[in-house]
Amino acid sequence: MFIISMVGHRVAAEGAEPLIVAAAASLSSAMTEVAADFERRYHVPVRLNVAGSSTLRVQIEKGAPCDVFVSADALNVKALVDAGLVDPAQQIVLFKNRLVVIASAEGGQRLNGLGHMKLRKGDFLSLADPQVVPAGIYARQALRHAGVWERVKDDVVPMADVRQAMTQVEQGNARYGIVYKTDASVSEKVVVVYEIPPEFHEPIAYVAAVVGAAERKKLVPEFFLFLRSPEAKAIYKKYGFLIDE
Question: How many CA atoms lie within 13 A of 167 on its CB side?
């Protein structure tokens, strides 16, 4: 988990109450840009709390301050709805994503399928935690669909979020990783060696939700609307997220 403070000098001087946005790790680049754009337009600070969606959901359940939650799946938002922390009417699917297999940019060879990953002794497959983190759960579904999960599961290195899973490949600690296509696109240290067919796993849908009574805080409704604006959609597209028009 890491916190990104988007507060500019003009905003801080005005003493506006900051908006707190919890965003899935795979959104760190795109949401940083969206938050900065919102600040320029509305002159209110936005503080991003970036981590795995399941980690963020647990933090919110334990009372961590949050105005808007953007999860990499619907299940973590549903858990907050069930806990009475999110109004089911205050949530929306923003965009979708794809899964890819990555390898080091130095020598990564194209694969013809998940079954073609060659994991020799000492090789590892890096995933976001397949028990709790959306990217890892989707990856496990894909590996099971391809009939290779039982073969590779003992070689899996589970990480706290998808960006950490990619870092393991970047640093040479894992031979392969399974991450979102958008994550792979922002790294020059990895290459995509296989694009996983979307039918191999549940649809990857990112859901934004207003948390608790946060809609009463000034400009939270505006931020929630801004997430669906043409300006925000242009940013999502730039980073490779898939938007239903």
Answer: 10
For the beta sheet containing 99-104, the strands, ordered from the edge strand earlier in sequence to the opposite edge, are 156-159, 125-128, 176-180, 99-104, 190-195
Distances in Å between the alpha carbon of 107 and those of 191, 212, 228, 234?
9, 48, 40, 33
As a whole number of angstroms, the distance between CA 103 and CA 193 comes to: 7
Q: How far apart are CA 157 and CA 13, in angstroms?
A: 45
What gap in Å lies between CA 18 and CA 220, rounded to an integer? 10
Which pLDDT tens digit goes with each residue over 130-188? 999 999 999 999 999 999 999 999 999 999 999 999 999 999 999 999 999 999 999 99
Instruction: Give pTM, 2 decimals.
Output: 0.88
